[in-house]
Amino acid sequence: MIQRTLVPLGPPAAEGYFELVVVCNGCTDDTAAIARRIPGARVVELAEGSKPAALNIGDQVASLWPRLYLDADIRISAAAVLDVLDRLARGDVLAARPPFRYDFGGADPLVCSYYRARQRIRRKPVLWGAGVYALTEAGHSRFGSFPNLIGDDLFVDEQFDPDEKAVVDTEPAVVKTPNDITSLLAILRRSRRGTAEARPGVGSAGGTGTATALAVLRSVHGPKSAADTLAYIAFALAARWGARRRTVGWERDESSRSLG
Question: The whole model's pTM is what?
């Protein structure tokens, strides 16, 4: 999977268009070795399996601004990276991301229903949910270092007013969805816990559940979209209940972590 993510970014990094820093945290496989084969990639290995620690180590290694933060399982083109960095270089916003689309090919039909409903929700420009966002140096200075929170993208998003961030008109990043119900519920529970950490006042349920449910219901325009909405609400309720249970470790989707 790391090879799929890095191959499009290696050549422009090797040519000096941007830095490409890969922080392998807590890896027990050959991820680091694969990443080192990518021209232009600088690989750092961190024994601790911690995304916030990896983000902070990456900041220590990188030298250029603006800076884009990319999850290892998100596909993005070099052109989109450069478009986002160029947008921030204009200086009128502090944070930005590309648009994104879901790739739910090969997923369970109920998982597909959930993401079809989710992508119908119209949201204000936010940094979370895409697995990629970028910051100027001034934007990063709002918080200094990444705290030990699950939802780094939500935390970063809440540092900025709406007019300080932008969704750049460029090629969308591709977010591969889970393939099965168990994996989807795992990442939804993690997302709920991340929201509860970033917004302590909302409790373990997290999120804006009622508002989101209403937005999904308003998007219904026929039997198929109604069925998708029912699946979305069912998964959301199951994740809300599951997020209240104590969980050890980082819940993630293993079902889509392969080249396809």
Answer: 0.85
